[in-house]
Amino acid sequence: MTDTKVLMPRRREVHPVPHDPDYKTSVPRSPSLPLLSMESTPSEETGPRFGHGLLGALDNNLISNFTQGKALAIGERIRVHGRVLDETGRAVPHTLVEIWQANAGGRYRHIKDSYFAPLDPNFGGCGRTITDENGYYEFMTIRPGAYPWPNRANDWRPMHIHFSIFGHAFGQRLISQMYFEGDPLINHCPIAATIKDRSQLDTLVAPLDLQSSRPMDYLAYKFDIVLRGHRQTMFENKMEGM
Amino acid sequence: MVQTLNTLIETPSQTSGPYVHIGCIPSFAGIEGIYPEDLGKSPIAHGAKGEIITISGSIFDGTGWTMRDAMFESWQADATGRFAGQEGADPQVSGFCRFAAGKDTGQFTLRTIKPGAVKMRGGSVMAPHISLWIVARGINIGLNTRIYFDDEDNSADPLLARIEQRQRVDTLIAKKVADGQYRFDVRLQGAGETVFLDL
Ligand SMILES: [Fe+2]
C-alpha cells in the first residue's frame, strides 16, 4: 500500500482554453472529445525527485552558463526570483525549476528558429535550479527580446521566459511562461489570450522588484508559481466508504 | 459576507512552444556543454529488474499529420509496482524519461522495463501502465494519457473501466509487434482520438 496523498482536482477553468482559433496551431492540436476525469491515483501522486547534486555551479546563470563563465551574454542583466507554492499555500521545497528563453534580440538557439536576429555566441538560453527548503528559487539572465512568429499576419510574442516546474507529483507537472510588467505586447498576444480570465493572465506577469535589484548591476523581477495542492484531511488513510 | 478561503489558484499553463527542447532536452536543440547530459535520458539504469521493452510510435494532429515537435515525459513504477522513493522500490529504476518526436520522422521511442501492477487506495489494482505527459507548440496545457499493454490483463483496471465508449479503450493500449517491442500512437483529434486524462 502507498502513503501518497490525493491531489486537488485541477481547476481547468483557470487554465487556457485548449482550442483557440486566434492561436492557429491549437486548432488541430486540441482534443475534440472531453477528458476522462478521475480522482488521482499513486501514478499521479508520485513523481520524479531531483537532488541538488544534479546542479552545476552555473546552471541558474544564463548570462554565463553557455560559455562556462568565459564570456557574458549580451543584454539587460536581470535576476528572476520567487517561490514555488501549492494551492494550500505551502512552500514546495527541493523541486526542479527549468527555464528557457530567446536572446536579447528575440532569437532562440534552436534549429527551428529562422528569425534573422543574430544568435549571441555567449548565450545558450536554458537554465535550471532546485528550490530551497522554503520553496525559493532564483536565476540570473538577460531580458529576452520580443519576436515575430507565424500565426496571424503580424503577431509578436511579448518578452517572456518559459518555465517548467515538477513539484513532487507527476500530476503537478506544469509548463508556463513568465511575462514582464509593462510590456504592451501582452495585450496583443494570442498565446497569452488563450487564458480567458484576465486576472489569471495577470498572475503570469512578473512585477519589477526594485528592492531585490542590485545597484549598478541588475534589475529584479519576482515570479511566484502555484502548483496543484494535496487534499489535507485527517480521514485520508481510511478505506474507501468508511 | 463569508470568510475568505485560504487556497491559492494554480498558475495557469501556457504552451511549451516549439523550442521546449532548449529547456528540457538541450542536446536535441544542438545545445551542448551547459549540462553534462539531458535530464531523464533513461528511466532505468544498468541492472534494473524486469523485462526490457521498447515502445515506439508517432503523434498525429487532427489532420493526420505526423507532428515533429512534441516532447514526452513518462513516469512509471518498477517491475513490482513500486515508484522510485517508495519502500522496496528498485534503486535502478528512476521511472522518469524524457523523449521527443524525431525532427525528421516524427517517430519516438521509449526504452524502459515493463512496470508492475500498482495498488490503489482502497485495495483495487491498476494494470501495468506508464503515465505519459505530452507538450508541444499548439498544446496549451500538457496532455496526460497512459500506455497499457495488450499482453496484460487489463479487464479490471479502474481507469479503463471508466471509459464509456469501449472502442476507445484501445487508444490506450500498446500493441506488441515483436518480443519486447510495442507500438503506441497518439492521435490528438478526430478518428481514433486518444483518451486524454484529467486526474
Ligand atoms: Fe518563446
- Secondary-structure element series of chain B: HEEEEEEEEEEEEE
Classification by helices and strands of chain B: mainly beta
Task: Write down the domain tally of chain A.
Answer: 1
The largest inter-chain interface, given as chain pair and residues per side, is:
A-B, 92 and 82 residues
Radius of gyration of chain B: 18 Å
| Low-confidence sequence ranges of chain A | none
Count the DSSP helices of chain B.
Answer: 1
Count of β-strands of chain A: 12
Give the helix level of chain B as a range of percent.
under 10%
E-strand count of chain B: 13
Computed structural class of chain A:
mainly beta
Class of chain B, according to the CATH hierarchy? Answer: Mainly Beta
Keywords:
heterodimer, A: 242 residues, mainly beta, Protocatechuate 3,4-Dioxygenase, subunit A, 5-stranded mixed sheet, 4-stranded mixed sheet, 12 strands, globular, B: 199 residues, 8-stranded mixed sheet, two-stranded parallel ribbon, binds fe (ii) ion
Summarize the structure.
The complex is a heterodimer of chains A (242) and B (199). With 242 residues, chain A is mainly beta.
Word description of this protein:
The complex is a heterodimer of chains A (242) and B (199). With 242 residues, chain A is mainly β. Chain A has one domain (56-226): Sandwich (Protocatechuate 3,4-Dioxygenase, subunit A), CATH 2.60.130.10. Chain A is built from three helices and twelve strands; from the N terminus they run H-E-H-E-E-E-E-E-E-E-E-H-E-E-E. In chain A, the strands form three sheets. Chain A has a five-stranded mixed β-sheet, with no helix packed on it. In chain A, strands 2, 5, 11 and 12 form a four-stranded mixed β-sheet that branches. The two termini of chain A are 17 Å apart. Chain B contains one helix and 13 strands, in the order H-E-E-E-E-E-E-E-E-E-E-E-E-E. Chain B has one helix at 20-24; strands at 52-57, 59-60, 71-76, 96-100, 108-113, 118-119, 125-126, 130-135, 143-149, 173-178, 181-183, 186-187, 197-198. Chain B has an eight-stranded mixed β-sheet. In chain B, strands 2-12 form a two-stranded parallel ribbon. Chain B has 199 residues and is mainly beta. The mean pLDDT of chain B is 97. The chains are: A mainly beta (242), B mainly beta (199). The interface between A and B is large, with 92 and 82 residues.
